[in-house]
Amino acid sequence: MENDPETQDAELRVSFFPELFLQRRIWILNILRREGVCEVLDAGCGEGQLLGTLCRPAPWLLPPPADVLPPTPIDDTRAQSPVYNTEEIPNLHIHTVYGLDVSVEDLKFAVEGTAPPPPEEIADEAGSPGYRSYVSGVQRWEGLVAKLWHGGLEVINEELVGVECIVSTEVIEHLPAEIFPAFAPMLLGVYHPNLLLVTTPSYTYNARFTAPEAPPSARKGYADPTGRTDRIFRHDDHKFEWTREEFIVWCDETAAEWGYSVDQTSIGRSVAVDPYGRDEELEGASNVAVFRRSDAMDAATREQKGRVAIKELAIPSPSHTLFAVHQHSPNPASMKPRPLAEIAARVKSKMEEFREAFMRVEELWYEKDIAVLCGGWIELLVRAVEQSDDLNLKRDSDGISQGRANWSVELIGGIVEPYVVNRPSYERESSVDYIPADWTPGEGPHEPWAWEESMSDRESAGAEGDVSAYTSDADGEYESDTGTSVGWGRPSSKGWNTELDKQKGSVNTAGWARTGEWGDAEDSWSESKVPHSALSSSAGWDGDESCDTTS
């Protein structure tokens, strides 16, 4: 390959999975989740894709206080109720987002992406027996304010002073020479957030686009518009692209000057292995850094130092103008729960209506009336099930402890008053999501109803687009500038087909199967029914479950 003239004179194809803009968003969201961030400024928000993601509601509130849900008594023979929000990927509970950008056209798109959803249309079949309401999405339990500002980052906005977290993704490389000196004094000085997250292209990685001995003509990019270097950039508006070494030096010097610690790395590796073995040397396509405020300098000193630096720069710029404000209001029932007995009774009646012996806890939660009774606290649903004589909480399957997302509720005693469907049972579709492996078909209290099939027919999907940089670009042709992603995952529609399925805890959608038929139910769903929580709280792509790109 090294002697192939065609390879030497042509660019190498480089692709990313997930796409590079998604990997940057995953990196950001994982840090926000891990740190429990509630307030975010997106400096250079572009068309607002990140802001739109942050405006999505968490599926439930943080754990309730002890006066709402007292700890389980030590002498209670039931299992101690767990806190439901301690998962590896916790939900975001954002209450304020700010967007700042110089482009009016981009902000118009950001206005649409951060606006509250329109009033929900009530489906024609709502209220009819067997109707499942989770298809209409996640309810909001916490209020949120989204404010969009038009202006440059070189201008002080007093409302942004002391903001908790600032994100600057693919922005710094677009700043003109006269604006760049204001970046650190403004963001780390005047605003002095707890966290600043920065991403910018790695010039070191650009070597990956050509063979080692390729002539300059092989590189299809953009010459440094400033004329300071002979480098070829990824976008025509980039004023610079730092190598890995240059980025590290800037991070260390900037952190030391403004009293921050910094962790830097790179993200974004090509799907294909470099034919010249340079992957470890070139590292990732995007440089990323987390600046964390330290005690090396107090907030007042840091802020005053920043104000002095901005004043000395004397950059003539207009003041910020408030472009749009959106208020996302919570459900009126938020933090106003009903008694546990009432919650348990509703769960029992729902399972009877749906003709289900087992349902996932989260599946029941996405039935809107149940979540409303709980006031937005899913822990109340868990406790209500635990204390009910008609329900049983299943935390494991065949002795293997299951992840919280796979906990299920068993209806003890089967279906008492099944609803009537105007179709014979062999035409109905089945929908028991999670039948534990330790339950024997045909035995126990479920047998009178165990071989009926139930009906349900729902699926849910969502999509979102790309992230725009400060000037609404996506860093050239090496990554897609548009993108969509399915908002809800799609678990398998198969039943317990094999012993391996049992061991893995596979999700199945087989319902009240006929005796001896524990494979696919003839009329089972072909799509998923209920999202897992990781797919519903500020998800950037399929739940952002990957932690591979965190620093």
Automatic annotation (TrEMBL):
Enzyme class: transferase
Record keywords: Magnesium, Metal-binding, Methyltransferase, RNA-binding, RNA-mediated gene silencing, S-adenosyl-L-methionine, Transferase
Cofactor(s) the protein requires to work: Mg(2+)
EC number(s) per entry: 2.1.1.386
Region (Disordered): 437-551
InterPro entries, A to Z: Hen1 (IPR026610), SAM-dependent_MTases_sf (IPR029063)
SUPFAM superfamilies reported for this sequence: S-adenosyl-L-methionine-dependent methyltransferases (SSF53335)
An example Gene Ontology CC term for this record: cytoplasm
GO molecular function, one term: small RNA 2'-O-methyltransferase activity
Compositionally skewed regions (Acidic residues) per UniProt: 542-551
Entries under Gene3D superfamilies matching the protein: Vaccinia Virus protein VP39
Keyword check for Transferase: yes
GO terms of biological process kind: RNA methylation; siRNA processing
UniProt key word Metal-binding: yes
Reactions catalysed according to its record: small RNA 3'-end nucleotide + S-adenosyl-L-methionine = small RNA 3'-end 2'-O-methylnucleotide + S-adenosyl-L-homocysteine + H(+)
Highest taxon of the lineage: Eukaryota
Family the UniProt entry places it in: Belongs to the methyltransferase superfamily. HEN1 family.
Protein name per Swiss-Prot or TrEMBL: Small RNA 2'-O-methyltransferase
Phylogenetic placement of the source organism: Eukaryota, Fungi, Dikarya, Basidiomycota, Agaricomycotina
